[in-house]
Each structure stands twice: as C-alpha cells, then as structure tokens.
Amino acid sequence: MARPTGDTVAHGSLPAPACRGAAPGIARPATVSMTSPVHSSELAAAAYHEAGHAVMCHLMRLRIASVSIGIEDLNGGQTTHGNKFRRTKPFSVDTPRGRMQVEKIIMLCFAGPLAQQKFLPRGPDADYGDAIDVDMASTLAMRVFRSRRVAAAYVNFAREWVRQKLEDPRVWAAVERLALALMRQRQISGRHAEAIIRGKLGSAPP
C-alpha cells in the first residue's frame, strides 16, 4: 500500500483509521486489514511482508523512515519511506521524473505480498495481505498508462520483476535478516533498517 502522509509514504496493512490521504490526483483504494499478528506465524508473516517492502525501498533508492509490525493500532505492519510525490511540483506522471517515481511505488507495492508468499506459501487463493498493495499498484498504473490493457500488462511485469528480485540470494538474505530483527524489536528506525539491509547487500545492490 502506498499513501503519502506529509513527507513519507506508508506501505503495508493498515486499519481504516490509520489511512490518511493518497497520492495527489490518485483515488483512495479500498481498505482491507490483515489479521492482527497475535500468533507467531502471523507475526512472522507480517515481518516478512514489511521486510519485503523495506528491502525494495533500498533497491529503489528511497529513504526508509521506519518499519514496524504488531504495534499500537496497526493490523499487520507498516513501512514508511520518503515521499517522492511531494518533491515533484506539480505532480505529473507525464514528466519523466513523475513517471519514474510512480513506477518505483508500483514495484514497492508488490514486494511485501511476494516476500510474505515466498516465506509462507499457502496456495494460489491465499491472503498475503496484498489487497491494498495490489489495488494501489493498479490505480497508479492506470494513472500512468490510461489504458486498462496496458496498465494490466505493466502490473503483471512489475509483479514478476519483483518476484525475480526476491529470488536473488543476497536480496532474500536481506529480507530474512530484517524480518528476524522485526520479530524481535517490532519497530525499527529507517537508519537501522538500512544498516541491516546493507549488511547483506553490500554497497552495490543487485
């Protein structure tokens, strides 16, 4: 899920009261909450989901603000990063800069659900907390391409590109390391998350 709130964008699964705003000119998607991660398997699934978002932030060269799971009123978790939309004035997907930023957000949307699915596969119809993420990716793709057929094709490409990235051993090792840290600490600062990710990816991301 991607929702600009001031200078940050949030990814993950949020209950309705915590969702504030949407990217300028982009319709708000329906809100679907994950089950609160009470059990260890649910906590782990949420951790891998948010770790996937965070690692993709790093790969997309977006500043991570924070990563958290199972705290306060959050269902599942949340990853926030620097809001590139806010810096594009006026925001327009018709500019190369605006389009590039939207494409990055689309990639981020798929990273959480696909990381969760890779960690704990449950079959083709299982819920990986992806309803909000996929809805936002589709909305953004329509905003860019203005054609359902082309938007659907790009969304499929983005999903498979992210899936391929997660198959890279170094990328997956970074996801696992961050997920384990999240399960222990529940909330991690952006600076700490970046340090964890760089520890596995090194200075030259794949």
Brief digest:
Helix content is 54%, strand content 12%.
Write up this protein.
Helices cover 54% and strands 12% of the residues. With 206 residues, it is an alpha+beta fold. It has a single domain, classed as Methane Monooxygenase Hydroxylase, Chain G, domain 1, CATH 1.20.58. Strands 1-2-4-3-5 form a five-stranded antiparallel β-sheet. A hairpin with a 2-residue loop joins strand 1 and strand 2. Helix 1 packs antiparallel against helix 3, helix 3 crosses helix 5 and helix 6 packs antiparallel against helix 7. The longest helix is centred in the middle third of the chain and has 24 residues. It starts with a strand and ends in a 5-residue tail after the last helix.
What is the general shape?
globular
Quick one: CATH class? Answer: Mainly Alpha
Largest sheet: 5 strands, antiparallel
The count of DSSP E runs of length 2 or more, i.e. the number of strands, is 5
Q: Ends: how far apart?
A: 24 Å
- SSE order, one letter for each helix or strand: EEHEEHHHHHEH
Strand content: 5-15%
Strand order of the largest sheet: 1-2-4-3-5
Count of helical regions: 7
Helix content: 40-55%
The overall number of domains is: 1
Rounded to an integer in angstroms, the radius of gyration calculated over CA atoms is: 16 Å
